[in-house]
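If your schedule permits, I should be very grateful for your opinion on a structural question. The matter concerns a single protein, recorded as an amino acid sequence and a row of backbone structure tokens. Could you please explain, in whatever detail you think fit, how the structure tokens follow from the sequence? I set the record out below, with my sincere thanks for your time.

——
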Amino acid sequence: MKNVLKFGKVQWIHLSAPTKDEIKELINKYDFHELIEDDLSESSTHEKIDVYEEYIFTVLNFPKYNNELKKYVFNQFSIILGKDIIVTISKYDTNHIENIIKNYAQELKERENDEEYKISPYYILYTIIDAMYDKTTTLLNKSAKDVNSMEEKLFLSNKLEKELLESLTIKKRNIVGLKHLFMPHKEILEEFQEIIPKFYKEDLDVYFEDLGARLDRIMNVIENSYENVESLFETYNSLMTIKTNSVINILTIFTAIT
């Protein structure tokens, strides 16, 4: 099984877009509950946390931009957390996770003789979510620049282009999609803070509080972006109304003269 890292007794297994046979092999090898196999096979896009006797199973969604569709699609992450194991399964490849794996692999190589070098599955979970929030922040920064560019184009152009309206419509749809994607995250993070202490004695509150603060910033940026796009829509419609009225006035005068 590819992408398996071992930190002493702790294992991290990562699969990207696994086949049903790969899922079956995973379930059988680590003796996970059959309900987890059902969830993984169905590829549900609903966020959730299920608590089993020895494991926590959760589903989180993160955005991945599809250039062909010009929209964000849900990159579903299914995560199995145990005392000495974490399994992460993503619907699509993501460079951020690959980079984390490479960095940990390099760190393991450099500290292979260090008996005190230990990492818990729960800290790996934090690292993964933190990395995906980093990716989201980068996406939002790019989106904000796109909105600013649209605003400049709207006020500098001598004519209202259909292409600009289409771009605004796509941008609005994508921002709404991001908003709905991240809304369940707050509840999931709060549940993690409540559940994980039953499996792990170390205090991880500071890590999940950090993720909560980052999520709040992401939601604020999304909300601000939505308001900016809405404002541009109103401006576009106002300019279109002015232009339409101007054309009607000219036609009225022309008709009167005729």
Notes: Strands lie at 4-7, 10-16, 48-51, 55-66, 71-82, 85-90. DSSP finds seven helices and six strands in the chain. The longest helix spans residues 205-257.
